[in-house]
């Protein structure tokens, strides 16, 4: 309990308590501060304070009508002196199963646990009512982000519930949640969340300016917000990423990111997303360092294979056969004997067929889709070899490329690789290795020029930050990352003095 002279102790003046609550929960727009009384808000006789995203609406209404208002009438019925008032408050709270608090720090902690508080005029204690809590769905693992180890809690299509799950993970007033409404017909509720003193101030101001422009438009899903705030509309690389996992969302907040949630959508948009973010998963931090680092390097190898293997094969088999070992070259020539098409046409036919099979497997019902993808690939591959349309080596190249693309954990980056693979194949068919190198240079130039919310897309790599390399190619032990200045500042709750990240 706070002492009598404490700066965080409740005051007897309701206006002072209301100002304190407004400052404490500033920009936490899911926290309701409701004045009670028969006249205007300035003449209120009590305040009700609670977090709407942590309480069911019917539950909060029940507490206010059945508990808070009768207790308010008891407490404002008049008292002979302050001592008599304190005793009446204690007795009334016991009858209505309310806990009494006199310190704002305790009230803040309890608000994030789902308490509803009644603060009356003239009293230096608040009555807190414990609610039944947030109504949650049965915990199921997100289909798009499976995990072997770690939490399996996924989001739902209700904004109120998703915000409540975030609040349960990060119970602090530093987690700011702001609302806006988009459209004149759908009136879609949109919320964005960030950690105060952790998210970059310039980035946050840029984000507010961009998301404010979406208000006149009808929003059906979180992806509509992404299209409105991204820097480059025509870049194949995603500048923001999605998640359905609350642990991933909480970790992104701790890393200074901004979350966007919309009603009727389970997807959480993480802004901004850098290039290196698309090769990490939440499971990397739930397993041992050696395993996490090995798997991460495998993902980077998969990225290189999925992007370059078909074009490298076309370039070497067409322009640079001297780079292929003699035994392997003889095997390739023997396999290609009787094939009527050049390597470029063969590669385009097989890649297009594989993409068609993959798209068909996605759109068909789940029990049928997987069977169509596997059986279709086997049948078409074998038939193409027997019909002399494609060589066995090309089927192997395309199959390895497809497997490598499946190893990339984020679907948005996998789509970018699928799009870039075809221009690289064409460049390799026209100029061989020189065309392939020119394609790599153009991609690298684009990545160096690309920005996301005003931040360099290749952050941690360009500009190079040696400190951040502990979580790029390998994952350093968690105790080493927790000793970083950024994490010490985060846990201390003080504004950063080291400059921009």
TrEMBL record:
Keywords: Membrane, Transmembrane, Transmembrane helix. Pfam families: GerA. The keyword Membrane applies. This is Spore germination protein. It comes from Cohnella hashimotonis. Belongs to the GerABKA family. The chain crosses the membrane at residues 298-319, 369-387, 393-411, 423-447.
């Amino acid at each position: 309990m706070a002492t009598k002279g404490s700066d965080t102790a409740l005051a007897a003046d309701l206006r002072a308590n209301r100002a304190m609550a407004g400052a404490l929960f500033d920009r936490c727009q899911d926290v309701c501060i409701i004045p009670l009384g028969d006249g205007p808000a300035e003449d209120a006789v009590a305040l009700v304070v609670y977090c709407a995203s942590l309480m069911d609406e019917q539950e909060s209404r029940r507490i206010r009508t059945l508990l808070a208002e009768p207790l308010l009438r008891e407490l404002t019925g008049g008292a002979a002196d302050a001592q008599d008032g304190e005793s009446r408050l204690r007795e009334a709270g016991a009858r209505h199963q309310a806990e009494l608090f006199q310190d704002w720090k305790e009230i803040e902690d309890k608000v994030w646990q789902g308490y509803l508080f009644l603060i009356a005029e003239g009293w230096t204690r608040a009555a807190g009512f414990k609610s039944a809590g947030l109504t949650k769905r049965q915990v199921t693992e997100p289909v798009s982000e499976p995990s072997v180890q770690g939490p399996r809690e996924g989001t739902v299509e209700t904004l109120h519930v998703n915000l409540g799950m975030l609040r349960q993970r990060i119970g602090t007033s530093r987690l700011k949640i702001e609302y806006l409404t988009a459209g004149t017909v759908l009136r879609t509720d949109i919320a964005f969340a960030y950690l105060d003193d952790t998210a970059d101030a310039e980035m946050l101001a840029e984000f507010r300016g961009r998301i404010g422009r979406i208000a006149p438009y009808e929003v059906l899903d979180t992806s509509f917000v992404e299209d409105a705030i991204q820097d480059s509309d025509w870049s194949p690389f995603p500048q923001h990423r999605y998640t359905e996992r609350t642990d991933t969302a909480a970790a992104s907040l701790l890393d200074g990111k901004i979350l966007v949630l919309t009603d009727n959508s389970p997807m959480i948009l993480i802004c901004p997303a850098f290039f290196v973010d698309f090769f990490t998963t939440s499971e990397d931090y739930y397993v041992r360092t050696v395993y996490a680092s090995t798997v991460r390097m495998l993902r980077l190898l998969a990225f290189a294979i999925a992007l370059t293997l078909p074009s490298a094969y076309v370039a070497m088999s067409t322009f640079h056969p001297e780079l292929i070992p003699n035994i392997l070259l003889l095997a390739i020539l023997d396999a290609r004997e009787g094939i009527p098409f050049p390597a470029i046409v063969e590669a385009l036919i097989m890649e297009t067929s594989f993409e068609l099979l993959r798209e068909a497997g996605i759109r068909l019902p789940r029990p049928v889709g997987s069977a169509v993808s596997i059986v279709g690939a086997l049948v078409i591959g074998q038939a193409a070899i027997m019909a002399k349309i494609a060589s066995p080596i090309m089927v192997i190249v395309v199959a390895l490329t497809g497997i490598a693309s499946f190893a990339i954990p984020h679907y948005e980056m996998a789509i970018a690789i699928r799009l870039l693979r075809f221009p690289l194949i064409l460049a390799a068919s026209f100029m061989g290795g020189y065309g392939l190198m020119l394609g790599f240079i153009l991609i690298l130039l684009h990545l160096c020029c690309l920005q996301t919310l005003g931040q360099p897309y290749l952050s941690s790599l360009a500009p190079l930050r040696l400190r951040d390399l502990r979580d790029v190619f390998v994952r350093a032990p968690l105790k080493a990352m927790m000793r970083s200045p950024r994490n010490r500042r985060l846990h201390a709750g003080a504004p950063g003095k080291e400059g921009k990240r």
